[in-house]
Specification:
The chain has 1 helix and 20 strands. By secondary structure, the protein is mainly β. The chain has one domain (3-305). The strands form 6 sheets. Strands 1, 2, 4 and 7 form a 4-stranded antiparallel beta sheet that branches. Strands 14, 15, 17 and 20 form a 4-stranded antiparallel beta sheet that branches. The longest helix has 10 residues, at 3-12. It is globular. The two termini are 23 Å apart. Residues 1-38 have low confidence and may be disordered.
Length: 306
């Protein structure tokens, strides 16, 4: 039985597994858009079973389907349960349209709890939906951030580093532009330099500014902390041809769980944008829209613990 079939069987049986006081239950979510007329891409399932050696309090919380009508920009977020902190998050939309893109996706440290938030721009002629994910655990984290310029009709890059001695769990980007068609994420992914005790971790994002005359800015975020069994996995480049939406997925090592993940595009065109970046039970999946006239490649990253 395949990994995906195993998840389907668990959900079809309505199985609920009690994993003990130190473990969480990952919310089972089927990526679908029944009732919508747009083309649907097949996302993976998140199984309700969490490995026995997952970090204390590990759980994945979802927003449920959020409507994204044609011609609108829409916001969604999801909070971590009390006594847990955000370690990662993502966003999935089932649309295959090159005109449905992730505008912003970032972690937030709020007064009483943490959450992960995102915006979707739907410039297509069909309604769709999206889901926001928060990955939570009993871990101490710090969220580092830095602001960067994003001039009109430009793709800009920015990076933020984790404090020395800590690892990057996840990250994201939030642009200053408000409204449909202002800014959209091109790439958002973890970074590492050096090795062993001298390794330095961080997060990089590239933001596209669609506007012709508005100079904007964007903030890059990195969720940082320390945990045993840490793996930063990088995939091989995958083709993202002109006029297509392409997927790049990664599996975590056995018995580990996803904390975060992301995608790096080789394209510098402002018409190449993030379509989805989200966890599944055994790893991380991404989609990228290439509405440009040139072929590109995309590279997936997954941050796994266990």
């Amino acid at each position: 039985m395949s990994r995906r079939s195993f998840g389907l069987a668990l959900l079809a049986a309505g199985l609920v597994v009690l994993l003990g006081a130190n473990l969480g239950i990952a919310s089972p979510v089927k990526r679908s858009a029944a009732g919508h007329s747009s083309n649907i891409k097949a996302g993976r399932w998140f199984s309700p079973v969490v490995p026995a050696d997952a970090p204390t309090g590990y759980q994945v919380v979802t927003s449920g389907d959020i409507d994204s009508p044609s011609g609108t920009e829409n916001f969604g977020d999801v909070y971590c349960p009390a006594q847990t902190h955000i370690v990662g998050g993502g966003l999935y939309t089932p649309s295959t349209s090159l005109d449905v893109n992730v505008n912003r996706l970032w972690p937030r440290e709020l007064r009483s709890t943490d959450d992960f938030a995102g915006f979707v721009d739907n410039n297509s002629d069909a309604d769709t939906t999206f889901v926001v994910y928060a990955i939570c655990a009993h871990r101490s984290v710090s969220i580092q951030e830095a602001v960067f310029d994003n001039p009109a009709r430009t793709q800009s890059s920015g990076s933020v580093q984790c404090p020395p001695g800590t690892q990057v769990f996840s990250g994201g980007a939030n642009g200053s532009g408000r409204g449909l068609g202002h800014q959209v994420i091109n790439s958002s992914y973890p970074t590492k330099s050096g090795s062993g005790a001298s390794a330095a971790y961080g997060w990089t994002a590239r933001m596209n500014n669609y506007t012709h005359h508005a100079d904007l800015s964007f903030t890059v975020y990195a969720v940082c902390g320390s945990v045993g069994g840490y793996h930063l996995v990088k995939g091989s480049p995958v083709e993202n041809d002109a006029g297509t939406q392409s997927a790049a997925d990664l599996y975590c090592p056995a018995s580990s769980v996803p904390f975060g993940g992301g995608l790096r595009s080789s394209s510098k065109f402002v018409s190449v944008n993030l379509a989805s970046s989200d966890p599944f039970s055994e790893g991380w999946e991404n989609w990228e829209n290439n509405a440009s006239v040139r072929n590109a490649t995309i590279t997936a990253y997954a941050i796994c613990v266990g």
